[in-house]
Design goal:
The chain has twelve helices and no strands. By secondary structure, it is mainly alpha-helical. It has one domain. Helix 6 runs antiparallel to helix 7. It is globular, with a radius of gyration of 19 Å.
C-alpha cells in the first residue's frame, strides 16, 4: 500500500469541515450558561476581558470553519485568509493571560485562596501550547497534510474550557475535569487518528508527534493540578503577571 499516495487523497474532505462545525457547537453550548445567556439577559458580571477574549475565540472558530470550506473551493483565498491566524493566535494567548489573572484576583478576593491562583497556570499552559501549535502549522503550510492536522490539534487544545463548562448541564458527572475537560475534550484527536488508520492505512505522523504528546501533557496537568509544586509555580506566575 502506497501510504504517501493515500495521504494525497485526503484533500477537501468533509472530516475537517465537520470538526470545525463541532468546535463551534462545543463553544456555544459550553459558554451558553456562563456567558451567552447572561449577556443576552443583561446580567453578565464576569471579568472585563471576557468580551475581548470571547470575540477573539469566536473569530478563531469562524476562521477555522471558513478555511475548511475554502480549501476545497478557492485555495488562493484560503491561503490569503490564513494569515489572519498569525494575528488571532497571539491575541487569543494574550487575552487568555489577561482574563486568567483577572479571574484569579476576583476569586482570591472572594475567598478562593491558593486554589483560585492554581487555575492561572492551566490557562497559561493551554494558551501557550495553542500559540506554538498555530505557529508550527503556519510554518508547515506548504505541507498540507501536516498543516491541517496541527491546526486541528491546536483548536482541540484551546477548546477544553468550553468542554469543561458542560458540567453546568451535567452536574451529576463525577470529576468533570477528567471526564469532560480531558477525556471528552481530547477524544477528537483519537477519532482523527482512527479515521486516518481506516481510510489511509496509517496514522499521520502529526498525530503521533503533536496530538498524543498534547494529550499526555494535559493528563499530567490534571494529575498535578493544585499540588504544592503546582501552587508554587502558579503563585510565581500570578505575581509576575499581576
Amino acid at each position: 500500500m502506497n501510504k504517501k499516495a493515500n495521504w494525497q487523497k485526503d484533500r477537501a474532505t468533509s472530516f475537517y469541515r465537520a470538526g470545525a462545525l463541532l468546535a463551534v457547537g462545543v463553544a456555544v453550548i459550553g459558554f451558553f450558561l456562563t456567558y451567552l445567556q447572561p449577556i443576552a439577559q443583561g446580567r453578565f458580571s464576569g471579568p472585563s476581558w471576557s468580551h475581548i477574549h470571547g470575540s477573539l475565540l469566536g473569530g478563531w472558530l469562524i476562521l477555522i470553519v471558513a478555511q475548511t470550506w475554502l480549501v476545497g473551493k478557492s485555495l488562493q483565498v484560503h491561503r490569503k485568509l490564513g494569515w489572519a491566524a498569525l494575528a488571532l493566535a497571539p491575541a487569543i494567548t494574550a487575552s487568555t493571560f489577561a482574563i486568567a489573572v483577572e479571574a484569579a484576583h476576583r476569586d482570591v478576593a472572594a475567598g478562593g485562596g491558593a486554589s483560585a491562583v492554581s487555575a492561572v497556570l492551566g490557562s497559561l499552559t493551554s494558551a501557550t501550547i495553542f500559540l506554538l501549535l498555530v505557529l508550527a502549522a503556519i510554518a508547515l503550510r506548504r505541507r498540507p497534510q501536516w498543516h491541517k492536522r496541527i491546526m486541528f490539534v491546536a483548536t482541540v487544545a484551546i477548546l477544553w474550557p468550553a468542554w469543561f463548562r458542560w458540567r453546568h448541564f451535567l452536574p451529576a458527572i463525577a470529576r468533570p475535569d477528567i471526564s469532560l475537560g480531558l477525556i471528552l475534550a481530547y477524544a477528537p484527536i483519537f477519532i482523527a487518528m482512527a479515521r486516518d488508520r481506516l481510510q489511509f492505512g496509517a496514522v499521520h505522523p502529526a498525530f503521533w508527534w503533536v496530538g498524543l504528546p498534547l494529550v499526555a501533557e494535559q493528563s499530567l496537568e490534571v494529575l498535578a493540578f493544585d499540588t504544592p509544586a503546582w501552587r508554587t509555580v502558579a503563585q510565581t506566575l500570578f505575581a509576575a503577571l499581576s
